[in-house]
Design goal:
The protein is of the alpha+beta class. Helix content is about 45%, strand content about 15%.
């Protein structure tokens, strides 16, 4: 777990001066942080900020690789030519994009640097790839280099020079602050720079915002940090339980060796010498375990990373490096001292005379040793109960997520991405007709029951964050909503019900009618009196100037009438409540990348090849996007789902190990107590005691410790519940999990006490009386 935490949260990036790299964010009163974008001229001005040591501009775009058989959809990351110096990661072979490739921000030659995975997939790792050409959107690029496997910036297929003069690029940034400059000190300067930019390009910024740049690792910490911290806390609990268990066993073993240790003392061994001997044995035990653990850790940590690959940065490399190895060795030494020192001190305190006179398995156990054993048993029970309750809560949280009300039906449906290459179908009418023809071709395939266009509206994460004006509203001027571009068949394909009013028909869709539908969340929030139908809304004025690659109707920011209210479907992830949403005919604003929803009466992905053929029958160079996915499988691939299932599975595994350790510890305490009291039990049975009385005496000897452990564990569960809700939401209502954990642990604790006691009750009284 430490290797995973180290690789993902402490040292996730291979970049030089990664601690000074920053994400350019802003926040608004309604939320954030959000990434801002700039134009080419704005980027040049921004680079002159006093707080900056350096910055890069970049833009992700899709391209179609043509000229080599079947067209392939690629992700291209356009970078400013200072990226190599900014990141400090040299290419694996060849060279990176250099300043002479794009002097003054204008590329002079089309060159490309391949990402490692694409190089392996498409060129089979050929070393003679340098100098070859690759055709993207009918434009040839010369391959000049290949990046190393750990450089996955942008998660793309290749890198090319960014044209700062192009109006098609919305430039995103990464920042590198000067040494000693804090985020708080840089924010005011960036705020003063961005406010004029917001007036120049209001589409890129909200009306009111505050710059709040953050560390490169902040989104990762926010997303997966709680998961890793909770798992690391569980491992620490498991380690403590293991240490307590070993202490219990070593205390019993030390008591058994009192005769041996007394002989050593009688021969002149000092107490410190005996303590050192016993502590050395404990350290050998812990270091031996550490060697085995380190051998397993690499593979186990990689398994976790492979289980949830999208939840961690692509640059993270799980390996047993020097820091991880030093941590493991230090932890082994600490654990050896922790569970070995106390037993060693206790075992070295024996009186010589009684121990020398006794050749029993151990001298008569005193109340001090019994008190220590009871304390350790109680602690082990409490920690195990805490871990079991957390596992129950995590499992309940996962089950709640798995049975959440989605508001739509993902079963039997898939989303097929249709990426248009650069400058393809520039007019709105041609693009709308093209997508409509594609939809019809797919709808006519055998096995397909219905289709719909959903440009940006595939749940459970759908829509663009957008402000909207409501006609006649006196308290709000711009309401935050999610804008979805769809056709009227969208709701029937996803089985989202129409609650009120009507939907636009196909004729209105092709004519780009100024009509919209809203979800119930929006209707309830903005028209609580139930009068949403007939209301008018419009988008901000800056929407009148969308990017050139997004052709729109002339009145795209004009007033539109609400004609229908539809049911709520998740649009902000699996855990967040449904956000107010507006559904608008996709023909009013045409994005280059569009998705077609396909519902089938067979497994959806089995139709994907036929869908590809139908798309290419319309245009042989048009490729289906790699984002094409089964909607049901898409749910299980979301980071929220994977992180929750990961927590649940690992907590169950950790709890099982803790339960085994706790049972072994309790069993060993009772067995040791029975062995020490064998002669006593023989006397009692010889005087007429029944076997049941002997069993009760043995079980009751640990009853106080077990009961105290349950009480302490219950207090820990409820005491830490509010803290744990940041990691495991279900722990706020963990009483069922606590009850189930208590029942399981109580049953196994009883068995661990009963079995040694029952064995003692079966001893022949005469044998027990001679037991010395």
């Amino acid at each position: 777990m430490f290797s995973l935490v180290y690789s993902v949260l402490i040292h996730p990036y291979p970049y030089r001066d990664a601690d000074r790299l920053a994400n350019p964010f802003y926040v608004t009163n309604s939320g954030g942080p959000y990434w801002f974008t700039l134009t080419g001229s704005q980027y040049r001005q921004f680079r002159g900020a006093h707080s900056l040591d350096d910055s890069i501009g970049w833009d992700d775009q899709k391209a179609i690789m043509t000229g080599e058989g079947v067209a392939e959809d690629l992700q291209v990351n356009y970078l400013t030519p200072n990226a190599t110096n900014f990141f400090g990661v040299p290419p694996l072979i060849g060279r990176a994009i250099m300043p002479f490739d794009a002097p003054d921000g204008k590329p002079v030659q089309p060159v490309a640097v391949l990402a490692y995975k694409f190089w392996q997939r498409h060129f089979n790792g050929a070393l003679d790839v340098l100098g070859r050409t690759i055709q993207l959107d009918h434009k040839r690029y010369t391959i000049v280099g290949v990046m190393p496997p750990r450089f996955t910036f942008g998660n793309c297929d290749l890198y090319a020079p960014l044209d700062l003069s192009s109006v098609d690029h919305q430039i995103m940034l990464y920042l590198k602050l000067k040494p000693g400059v804090s985020y708080a000190a840089a924010n005011p300067e960036f705020q003063s720079l961005l406010e004029p930019f917001a007036k120049e390009t209001p589409l890129y910024f909200p009306p009111h915002f505050r710059v709040q740049i953050g560390s490169l690792i902040d989104p990762v910490v926010k997303g997966v940090g709680p998961t890793l911290f909770s798992l690391f806390a569980a491992v620490v609990l498991l380690l403590l339980i293991g240490c307590v268990n070993c202490s219990i066993l070593l205390l019993a073993r030390g008591k058994m060796r009192q005769h041996e240790l007394s002989v050593r003392a009688a021969l002149g061994a000092s107490r410190s010498r005996i303590v050192l001997q016993l502590l050395t044995e404990s350290l050998i035990l812990s270091l031996s375990g550490a060697v085995i653990g380190i051998a397993l850790a690499y593979r186990l940590a990689k398994t976790i990373l492979q289980w949830t690959p999208d939840a961690f940065p692509g640059e993270s490399v799980i390996e047993i490096n020097l820091p991880v190895l030093a941590f493991c060795v230090g932890l082994a030494l600490f654990a050896g001292i922790l569970f070995g020192l106390w037993p060693a001190l206790q075992a070295s305190r024996s009186d010589l005379a009684p121990a020398m006179q006794s050749r029993t398995r151990g001298a008569t156990s005193g109340t001090g040793l019994k008190r220590i054993h009871n304390f350790l048993v109680a602690g082990q029970i409490a920690l195990t109960l805490l871990l079991l309750a957390a596992a129950g809560a995590a499992s309940a949280d996962f089950l709640q997520l798995a049975h959440a009300n989605l508001g739509y039906d993902p079963h039997g449906a898939m989303a097929v991405g249709i990426p248009l290459h650069e400058s393809s179908l520039p007019s709105r009418e041609a693009r709308a007709a093209y997508f409509t023809r594609l939809e019809q071709r797919i709808a006519n395939l055998p096995g397909v029951t219905s289709t719909a266009i959903a440009t940006n509206a595939v749940p459970p994460i759908s829509g663009w964050n957008m402000g909207v004006e409501v006609l006649g509203s006196s308290t709000h001027t711009r309401q935050p909503i999610r804008l979805n571009l769809i056709d009227p068949a969208y709701f029937s394909v996803l089985h989202i019900p129409l609650r009120e009013g009507r939907l636009w028909d196909q004729a209105e869709n092709m004519n780009s009618a100024p009509v919209v539908a809203v979800n119930q969340a929006m209707a309830h929030r903005y028209w609580p009196n139930g009068d949403a139908l007939g209301q008018q809304i419009r988008f901000p004025a800056e929407m009148r100037s969308p990017p050139p690659s997004w052709p729109a109707v002339a009145d795209v920011a004009g007033w539109m009438q609400v004609i229908g209210v539809v049911g709520d479907a998740l649009n902000d992830g699996l855990r967040h409540p449904v956000q107010p949403a507006v559904y608008m005919p996709f023909t009013r604003l045409m994005q280059p990348f569009t998705q077609i929803l396909v519902r089938t009466n067979v497994p959806p992905l089995s139709e994907l090849q036929a869908v590809r053929a139908a798309v290419q029958s319309e245009n042989s160079e048009q490729q289906v996007g790699r984002e094409s996915r089964d909607l049901e499988q898409f749910l299980t691939s979301l980071p929220e789902w994977k992180q929750t299932s990961l927590i649940s599975a690992l907590f169950v595994a950790f709890s099982f190990m803790a339960l085994v350790l706790a049972v072994i510890g309790l069993y060993s305490v009772v067995s040791f107590s029975v062995a020490q009291r064998t002669n006593e039990f023989g006397v009692r049975m010889a005087l007429g005691a029944q076997p049941n009385n002997v069993v009760w005496l043995a079980v009751a000897s640990t009853g106080v410790a077990v009961g105290s452990g349950f009480v302490a564990g219950g207090l820990l569960v409820f005491g830490l519940g509010k803290v744990a809700t940041r990691w495991i939401p279900a722990t706020a209502h963990s009483f069922p999990a606590l009850a189930a954990a208590t029942a399981v642990l109580l049953t196994l604790s009883f068995l661990a006490s009963y079995l040694p006691a029952r064995r003692a009750a079966k001893i022949d009284p005469m044998v027990a009386l001679r037991y010395q």
